[in-house]
Specification:
Helices cover 25% and strands 25% of the residues. It has helices at residues 15-24, 27-30, 40-46, 122-133; strands at residues 35-38, 50-52, 58-61, 70-77, 82-85, 89-91, 97-99, 107-111. The strands form 2 sheets. Strands 2-1-8-3-4-5 form a 6-stranded mixed β-sheet.
Length: 134
């Protein structure tokens, strides 16, 4: 089976090719596609526009059926590029509740979960490295 994903792929205006690129990308590339915008306060604080979503982040939904609702990220599915948020559920026919998958482009991060030491927000890290070199 031939590898369907190309590292050297530049761009295409054809939506089908764009979808194919994202679908066939390896997980370490798909992880980078799971980023969401930061709120204006966080944007000033961390000096970056967006960062990758992680479990425990507080987010606000910007588009769709659950617009303007907020919640904590419960689960992030890298393979499907979907995020599940606590409190954002739908009721099924049998009466049970199920989480609704939401694409990260429809979210805005309002509070970062910085408890994990491995997590780095890119904007601040770049600036700190420049200051260390000088």
């Amino acid at each position: 089976m031939k590898n369907e994903w190309s590292k050297s792929w530049n761009a295409s205006i054809r939506p089908a090719k764009q979808r194919k690129y994202k679908y066939n990308a390896p997980l370490h590339i798909k992880h980078n596609l799971l980023s969401a915008h930061l709120s204006p306060e966080l944007r000033k604080k961390h000096e970056t526009r967006a960062t990758t979503l992680r479990k425990g982040d507080q987010v606000k939904i910007l588009a769709g059926q659950f617009r303007k609702k907020t919640g904590k990220v419960n689960k992030v599915l890298i393979k499907n590029q979907k995020v599940y948020i606590e409190g954002i559920e739908t009721i099924k026919k049998d009466g049970s509740k199920a989480f609704v998958p939401i694409h990260p482009s429809n979210l805005m991060i309002t509070e970062l979960d910085l408890a994990d030491k491995r997590r780095k927000v890119k904007g601040k890290a770049k600036k700190e490295k420049k200051q260390e070199k000088k």
